[in-house]
Amino acid sequence: MGQCNGSPFYQDVSVLQDSSMEAAAASALANNDNRTYSARNGNILSGDQLGSSSSMANQGSLAKFRSGVSGNLNHGNTSLDATSSVQSFSASFSTRHSLSNNESFVGTSPVDSGFGYHRSSSSVLRNPSTAAASASTTTLNSLFLDKMLDNWSIQKLHKLLTGDATLIYEVNPDELFVMATLKVGSNYLLDILSNSRDGLIPEKITKLIFCNLIHLMSDQFGSVVFKKLLSSVTDETLIKDIVQNVVFQRKPLIQAATTELGVFSIQELMKIAKKVNKDLVNKLMSVWGDRELLDVMKNKCGSRLIKFFLEFLNLYQKMLIYIVPMNEVSLNELATAKQGCITLQIIMENLQNPFRDKLLENISNAAHLLSYHQCGNFVIQHVIRLDSPMYTFTEIICKKLRGHYVQLSMDKCGSYVVEKCIYSTVIGMQLASVDFLINDTLVELVQNQNGNYVVQTLLETTKIKDQSLYRMLFFKLKQYSKDIQNHPHGSNVYNLINGGKSNKGGSKLY
Asked: In whole angstroms, what separates CA 52 from the centre of its chain?
């Protein structure tokens, strides 16, 4: 298969867009609207001004079908009125391709989006955060739909609605791509892939839509078609071509890895590729650089893909993932990101030596920085949980925190790390005790909403493991009885050293 090129259809669509924008601008001026509307500067068109023209465009297009169709179109056990079917098809298109409030095509190119209407929309929808953006998108989509339907005979539409597989031999690649991203078109393709007796249908569809296959991976309806095609194609050479084309279109593949449907599609592609030829998996992994993998690791959907990679790939292939957090800068970026810290914990659990020990050592050496961080503290705690039975890295962490125990204990995030150190190793208990005993602000620590729980933990642990340390802490705390007896937080420690029970089930904030 050769490189996928653009289509004249895209240029025609751009012309349609420009004419629709100019018409809207004229309408705005006629209504004494002083704003400037331009297809070139990215301003949004008013929904009120576009509404009437959109309606007229739809009516004009649908009238062509209404005038030539009568009776019902039967599809299985469902009877569809021809007029309502066309209206449903039009509504499906407009609904499917209208931008949500949080969606934008800014910066997309024909290679990025895979279809012309995405490209042409990008010059208009710079800030689709208002109803006007949705209205203008609907108008443009109506024009795209009109252009496609204008070239369709009633017989072609009938074949679409009745599941006639011969339609595949009559549509062009652009039309087929649009069909795959619409509910009605997706259902049609799934139906003929499942039920058609024509064994060439899967290959025919795949070759027609070949250049845009990668753009189906993250689409609501297209992703289902993508999966069905992969499982239906029996030609191994065509599977190899699909993999090669996906690898060639590197950017949209990486973008797909940050969407839920895209991740699902990539997983399916990896499984099929492995069945055909294991070398195809190496090709698919070759597109991922350290920066791309790092961004995927920090993404919620991408994190699931990384987990899949770690379970699916062989050791040689997984090295691409292992080396990313070995870099000090990347490690810090990953450990301090909300989703990145979760991915890092997944990687730590999967790692094998020598990678495992090296990564745990790097994280342990950064303990004095990460322990204060709202995400990084979980990474440090995870190292302590994993580090048994020798506790080599836990001891590194405990030593790195020397001189920080009091301050960390009063920090919402750091206090959990200190408690883990106290519980896990004798050296952690001892270093925390020394920091507390020599610090002049022990009473402030006891009165702190987080620190009082750490002091309770230390008292309970030293009482069992080191009686001498316990007595030193006990007598020093006794000196502050008047200051802590009636304090909202300090009273927890006061009650404990006066024969009461620990109050760790209290109101410590998370």
From this structure: 38
Q: How far is CA 288 from CA 282, 339, 373, in A?
A: 11, 19, 29
Stretches in the chain below the pLDDT threshold 50: 6-87, 89-90, 92-141, 506-510
Q: What is the pTM of this model?
A: 0.70
> Residue 134 has what pLDDT?
40
Token pair of 177, please? Answer: 């791509």
Contact 191, 163 (CB under 8 A): yes
- As to burial, measured by CB atoms within 10 angstroms (0-12 exposed, 13-18 middle, 19+ buried), residue 33 is middle
Distance CA 120, CA 114 (A): 12
Helix, coil or strand: residue 323: coil
SS (H, E, C) 391-434: CHHHHHHHHHCCCCHHHHHCCCCHHHHHHHHHHHCHHHHHHHHH
Q: Identify any residues that bridge with 395 across adjacent strands, giving them in sequence order.
A: none
Return the SS3 of 73. Answer: strand
In tens, the pLDDT along 466-501 reads: 999 999 999 998 888 888 888 988 888 888 888 766
Determine the distance from the C-alpha atom of residue 349 to the mean position of all C-alpha atoms in its chain, rounded to a whole number: 22
